[in-house]
Amino acid sequence: MTNKLIDIELITFAPSATVAIAQNYGFFKEEGLNVLETRTPSSSVQMKGLIDETYQFASTAFDNVLAWSKRDGAEILAIAKASSMVTLPMYVTQEISEWIDIKGKVLAVDAVDTAYALVLRRILQAHDLILDRDYSFFPAGSTGFRFDSMYSGKTCGAILNPPWNKKAEECGMKLLADHNQVLPEYPGGTYAVSKDWATKNRQVVIAFLRSMLRATDLIYSESDHVRLTEVISQGLGISASEASGIFSRVPSRLQLIGEELQIPLTLRTDFGFHLPNGTNVDNYLDRSFLSEAITPK
Prior knowledge:
Layout: E1 6-12, H1 17-24, H2 27-30, E2 33-39, H3 43-51, E3 57-60, H4 62-68, E4 76-81, E5 89-92, E6 105-109, H5 116-125, E7 135-139, H6 143-151, E8 157-159, H7 164-170, E9 174-178, E10 190-194, H8 195-200, H9 202-221, H10 225-236, H11 240-247, H12 258-270, H13 288-294
Parallel strand pairs: 1-2, 1-3, 6-7
Antiparallel strand pairs: 3-10, 4-10, 5-8, 5-9
């Protein structure tokens, strides 16, 4: 009789090549896990679900960890790197020709006080446009909902991650800027957990990370990238082009780098936000799970 797999809920904003490979090659099952993925409509849904343990893992921007850890009592921790890079292009609708045209307008964000909304504020600040003085934010949710709000005319601009940036261009929307102009070292996403749940289920966390490490090793050791792209494309039900883009964001190492994660922390404090769990970046990290996952059984 085979042992029953442990159901694990992973909530993400976008598909992951590493998760797709771990699923396809059976790495999760070999660790006794049945990993189920959910796409979140917003960071608020994602973080609340992590806190109430509807979901056990979240792939999310580190700023969401900063914003939510101890916000409602529960401590949230980043445990590993989820993506090596981030693409944050700012698109605008056709009536926006120059920066001054944004004055008096509404822009779409996930949530007004987290993650890429702060990056968008910094982009606009570089052009002397200040939130609530020159423009306002509408909390539309994740990228697809931000695109919809622009398409419907409710908002005039947003950060639109791939593949929604291509859809925007097809609709006549224009690329106005991207984060590289103001925050070129802004980090990619992290895997996050509730400290309470992870402490009680330490071996499950380690098993999840061990599967992700095996998938990462396969991706970086396999010479047939065309084959891996096909696996990702078929596993996620996306085009080869989209799969290639996701593939390119796989980090070669899952270790968290404090200097990189300091960037969103500094951005958050620069905008005057209070951090319930303090301003030391290490308060929001637990590297011990990954260290144990790396150690041979």
